[in-house]
């Protein structure tokens, strides 16, 4: 027998265990996201992003796994509706992002600058900014002078910090011959001329660098979003199919 049978109706074991395996991905991803929030990663605190994302994925995976194994229609419907809401929110976010590109660009600038101000206040935030600047080969939101917003890096005469008129090491251009990162490479660099600065640091801002990356990888980004959307639709269809099978069996009792 392929599943429970009552008067010709049956619950498909194939769909049942396929949806269980499908949800293991969400469950494990949720656990890993929460672990990484404790071990890996202010302004904005990146830990909360990991916790919320991991929590949502964990709950979604739990509902799908238990719902499929226990043939619990409530949990399966919860999984299906919740996944549908997430899909709708993603679709809405995509449309809004395309429609209000300039507004999002301004908000991204505001977001980065707020976090530049809090750079030394939170080690997790500091690591996130350093990672971003190293990955995109950028410095500040629109340029290195954005670091004037930080009390440790600004160029005012009253600033007693040794990092005055400097930038974080993550702004520096890398020397392939150096195995160890020189964390003082950005000291006093903004006191130099614009031409000299280009020798030591990345002078382009992270917002334009991100825009350039999106343009260069538009096909890849679109493919990922379409793939995720199709996976979500597939999960909703599986859950609804299993719910229909279970209700048909129960109606036959």
UniProtKB/TrEMBL annotation:
InterPro entries: Tetraspanin/Peripherin, Tetraspanin_animals, Tetraspanin_CS, Tetraspanin_EC2_sf. The chain crosses the membrane at residues 14-35, 47-69, 81-100, 220-243. PROSITE patterns: TM4_1 (PS00421). Gene3D superfamilies: Tetraspanin. Keywords: Cell membrane, Disulfide bond, Glycoprotein, Membrane, Transmembrane, Transmembrane helix. Pfam families: Tetraspanin. It is a multi-pass membrane protein. It is found in: Cell membrane; Membrane. GO terms for cellular component: plasma membrane. Disulfide bonds join 138-171, 139-155. Belongs to the tetraspanin (TM4SF) family. This is Tetraspanin. It comes from Oncorhynchus mykiss (Rainbow trout).
């Amino acid at each position: 027998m392929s599943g429970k049978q009552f008067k010709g109706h049956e619950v498909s074991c194939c769909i049942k265990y396929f949806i269980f395996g499908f949800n293991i991905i969400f469950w494990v991803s949720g656990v890993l996201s929460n672990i990484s929030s404790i071990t890996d990663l202010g302004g904005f605190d990146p830990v909360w992003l990991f916790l919320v994302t991991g929590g949502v994925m964990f709950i979604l995976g739990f509902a799908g796994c238990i719902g499929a194994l226990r043939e619990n229609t409530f949990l399966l419907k919860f999984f299906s509706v919740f996944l549908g809401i997430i899909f709708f929110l993603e679709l809405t976010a995509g449309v809004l992002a395309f429609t209000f590109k300039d507004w999002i660009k301004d908000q991204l600038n505001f977001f980065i600058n707020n976090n530049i101000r809090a750079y030394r206040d939170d080690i997790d935030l500091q690591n996130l900014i350093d990672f971003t600047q190293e990955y995109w080969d950028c410095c500040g939101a629109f340029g290195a002078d954005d670091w004037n917003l930080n009390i440790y890096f600004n160029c005012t005469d009253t600033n007693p910090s040794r990092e005055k008129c400097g930038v974080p090491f993550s702004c520096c251009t890398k020397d392939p011959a150096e195995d160890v990162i020189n964390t003082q490479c950005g000291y006093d660099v903004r006191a130099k001329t614009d031409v000299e600065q280009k020798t030591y640091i990345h002078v382009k801002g992270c917002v334009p660098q991100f825009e350039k990356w999106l343009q260069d990888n538009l096909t890849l980004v679109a493919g990922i979003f379409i793939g995720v959307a199709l996976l979500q639709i597939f999960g909703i269809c599986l859950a609804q199919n299993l719910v229909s099978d279970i209700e048909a069996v129960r109606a036959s009792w």
